[in-house]
Structure formats: structure tokens, C-alpha cells
Amino acid sequence: MRYKDKGHLEIEDRGAVLVIRVDGGPHGVFGLDVANQLDKLVDRVDRDPGIRAVVLTGAHPERFVSHAAVQWLQEEGAASPTVGRRAASAVVRVAKRVNQARVLEPVVSRTPLRGALQLERLHATFLRMNASGVIFVAALNGSALGLGAEFAWACDLRVMADGDFFIGQPEILLGIIPGGGGTQRLTRLVGTHRSLVAILEGKPFTPEEALANGAVDELVPQDEVVTRATALAEHLGARSKGSVAAAKRSVYFGGSLSLQDGLHIERTEFFTRVMSKEGQELMLDYIATTEATGELPLYNPDTYAQALASGSVPRHRSTKTKRR
Asked: Which residues, 6+ apart, have CB-to-CB distance to 242 below 8 Å?
């Protein structure tokens, strides 16, 4: 029987924050429908200036996302001829060009290249999350393996339920390797050696191990996961959307380059913000406050506390800035 995808995203609108429940059916798997709907979701939140953060959690009572729909992976792999590394590299490059152009996509989607195109699209979606001015928080209400873990790694923050749960990359036990970014994102989170050992063994982290290794950011009781993730989303989502995007691009894309190239990305992003209307007005207000009070605002403990809570240094002039 051919694989039929019935996964979907349940969207709860809480104003500046969207809470998304990933429903992967009875087993809570991540399939093509979820991938396609996630792609549309990222496009929506990027375009809407009123949406500042997204909380992602699982509809399954004990799982965030179980893992990829294995039948989906198996059938797409079987539809393509066996190739070596050089040919596989060529296929991946073609898929990337097709995804960027979108012109040939309807044709390619009916060929053995469709699996490579689907994977390219998923990677592109995760990368758009990394480049977005929206904060993405994974509320891990339970376990996550394989693509479920990679989905969490692609988010900006991870709050995990404390309990008899686990998160990791077991793909090697099926004769494959992580394909949704796990070899790269887990490595950046926990370090090269720890990531390699975890991937080679296929053994997941317990919540305590994940926290100790830096794979998740917080552990809370299961019934508090979405509440805590939403609080983090609201807190960081209060920052300038343009500056959040610039900071994320600098860290995610510049942090894996040489120091010289990473600094080039930082300078580029810095100049876009320092010349922005928002940045200029906030800095002018800071200067005016310093002149009026005789002290630097961020060396006033109360002012600093207000800035951290609200997302920007409090204004003392009448000029108002619309966040971009």
C-alpha cells in the first residue's frame, strides 16, 4: 500500500504569538503534508508584521513529533536509482536549482528526482526559520526522534517536558543517517564529538542529558511546556523583528564560517540595522536621555530592567517608532 499522508498543523492564534500543534496522525509522524504546511506557515509569519513568535508542540499526548514517516522515506528512496556520492551530489544540486526557480517543479515532481526536491524544500523551510525575524520555540511535550528532533533543532529555543521521554537521532539503526539537518544542527548545539557519538550509536538523550549537553534549553513538567514556551516566545518576540532577523542570520549563518567571513556577515547585518529608521530613533532617544539625566540609561538598573522586559530601551522623547 502506497504511503498516504494525513498530517496537518492546528493553528491557535494568540495575537503576536501563534501556537501550532503538529498532528501527525495516530503515531505522530512528520510527513509530506506537515512539511508543505510548515512551508506555508513560515511564509505567512514572515510576511505578517504582527506575528512575532511561533510555539510548536505535538498533538500526540506523549510525543512532540515521533520521527519522519518511514514509508514516505522508503518509497521516495526506492523510486530513485542507486547512485554513488558524486551522482547523489549532482542530484542534490539539481534539486536546489529547481526549488529556487520553481519553474520546472511540476515536471520534476513526477520524476525520481521528487524525493530530492522534497528534501531540498524541507531544508529551505528550516533555513527560512533560521533567517526569520520570528522567534520559533519548540515546546517538546514528549519524545522526538529523527526528523522530529531535527525539527526541534531548527527552532531557536527548546523547552522539553521532564519525565520518561527522549530526543535524538536513531537513523543509523535503519541503515541511513540524519537527513533533515541533524548532522549539522545537533553538532552546532552539542559539539562535534558528542554529536558524532550520539549519531553513530543511535541512542537518544534523556531530558536531563539533553539539557546538560545544550540540546534543549529548559526542562519543565509536561503540563507546563506550552505555557513556558509561550512565555519565552512573548518575551523574545517583543524585540525588534528586523533586529531579531539580523541577529539570527549573523549567528546561524556566520557562526559556521571562518572568522573573517563571519565578521563580514555581521557587518552587513549591522549596517542594515544601524541605518534603519528604528535603530536611528532609538539611538537618538538614548543620546537625549543621557544628556537630560547625566547618566547612560543602560547603567540605570531600573531602566535596564524595563528594557529587558519590554524589548527596547524605554523612550523619553515624544517620537514613536513603528517596529519593522
From this structure: 133, 272, 273, 276, 278, 323, 324
Residue 206 near residue 197, CB atoms below 8 Å: no
Copy the grid coordinates of residue 290. 543621557
C-alpha cell at 66: 515521533
Structure confidence at residue 321 (pLDDT): 44
pTM of the entire structure?
A: 0.89
- CA gap 7, 297 in Å, rounded: 50
Q: Is 291 exposed, middle or buried (0-12, 13-18, 19+ CB in 10 A)?
A: exposed
What pLDDT score was predicted for residue 92?
A: 65
Name the burial class of residue 80, with classes exposed (0-12), middle (13-18) and buried (19+) by CB atoms within 10 angstroms of its CB: middle
Angle 58-61-66 (CA atoms, 0-180°, nearest 5)? 55
Helix (H/G/I), strand (E/B), else coil: 121: helix
Alpha-carbon distance 87 to 7, whole Å? 32
Task: Report how far residue 286's alpha carbon sits from residue 292's, in angstroms, rounded to the nearest whole number.
Answer: 10
CB count, 10 Å around CB of 260?
7
Cβ–Cβ < 8 Å for 137, 156: yes
SS (H, E, C) 246-304: HHHHHHHHHCCCCHHHHHHHHHHHHHHHHCCHHHHHHHHHHHHHHHHHCCCHHHCHHHH
| Nearest alpha-carbon partner for 129 in 160, 103, 105, 151 | 151
Q: According to the model, what pLDDT value does residue 80 have?
A: 66
Distance spanning both ends of the chain, measured CA to CA: 49
Residues of the chain with pLDDT under 70: 1-5, 72-83, 85, 87-88, 90-92, 94-95, 98, 101-113, 317-324
Strands 17-23 and 63-65, sheet pairing: unpaired
